[in-house]
């Protein structure tokens, strides 16, 4: 009789456990992602970096690597959803920038570029100023 009662209690506990595991949703996993407000920037413009999918209420280290390999580190915090944003002022170095964000557990990467300079030159064929690369010009050439 006691064993039947014990078996009944164990059976009820097993059923309760099965019901609880099927009712409680599994924690959603999100892939950490970072992006910038624009893909390309002008020299000396401010870049805004956004992130999501990181650990909520934690410090995120955002490292921006310039084309000349100099690194700038920004520390920011995530909100209750694991999202963050931060800003960085560029200083006129042209090229591709790499960005890495990590909270110690999760990390994500992205890139952005600093726009190339537009040069103006004298086109002798059309006898006018043109915009674009300095094709055909050599160092030391002069334009009146």
Which blocks of ≥5 consecutive residues have pLDDT under 50? Answer: 24-28
What is the spatial order of strands in the main beta sheet?
2-8-7-4-5
Q: How many beta-strand runs?
A: 10
CATH C-level of the domain at 33-114? Mainly Beta
Order of helices and strands: HEEEEEEEEEE
Number of helical regions = 1
Supply Rg.
29 Å
Strand proportion: 35-45%
Largest sheet: 5 strands, mixed
- Average pLDDT, to the nearest integer? 81
Euclidean distance between termini CA atoms: 110 Å
Helical content stands at 10-25%
CATH superfamily of the domain at 33-114: Macroglobulin (MG2) domain
Shape: rod-shaped
CATH topology of the domain at 33-114, by name, is: Immunoglobulin-like
Structural class determined from secondary elements: alpha+beta
Q: Do you know the CATH architecture of the domain at 33-114?
A: Sandwich
Folded structure, characterized:
The chain is of the alpha+beta class and 144 residues long. The protein has one helix spanning 2-23, and strands spanning 33-36, 40-41, 46-52, 59-65, 71-77, 84-89, 95-102, 107-114, 119-123, 128-132. It has a 5-stranded mixed sheet with strand order 2-8-7-4-5, with no helix packed on it. The protein has a 3-stranded antiparallel sheet with strand order 1-3-6, with no helix packed on it. Strands 9-10 form a two-stranded antiparallel sheet. The protein is rod-shaped, with a radius of gyration of 29 Å. Residues 24-28 have low confidence and may be disordered.
Name the features.
144 residues; alpha+beta; 3-stranded antiparallel β-sheet; 1 helix; rod-shaped
């Amino acid at each position: 009789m006691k064993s039947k009662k014990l078996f009944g209690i164990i059976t009820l506990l097993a059923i309760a456990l099965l019901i609880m595991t099927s009712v409680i949703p599994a924690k959603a996993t999100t892939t950490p992602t970072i992006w910038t407000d624009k893909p390309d920037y002008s020299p000396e413009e401010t870049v805004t970096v956004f992130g999501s999918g990181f650990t909520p209420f934690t410090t995120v280290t955002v490292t921006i690597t310039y084309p000349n390999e100099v690194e700038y580190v920004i520390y920011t915090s995530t909100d209750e959803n694991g999202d963050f944003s931060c800003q960085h002022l560029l200083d006129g170095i042209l090229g591709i920038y790499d960005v890495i964000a990590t909270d110690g557990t999760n990390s994500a990467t992205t890139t952005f570029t600093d726009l190339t300079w537009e040069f103006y030159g004298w086109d002798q064929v059309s006898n006018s100023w043109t915009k674009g690369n300095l094709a055909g010009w050599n160092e030391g050439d002069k334009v009146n």
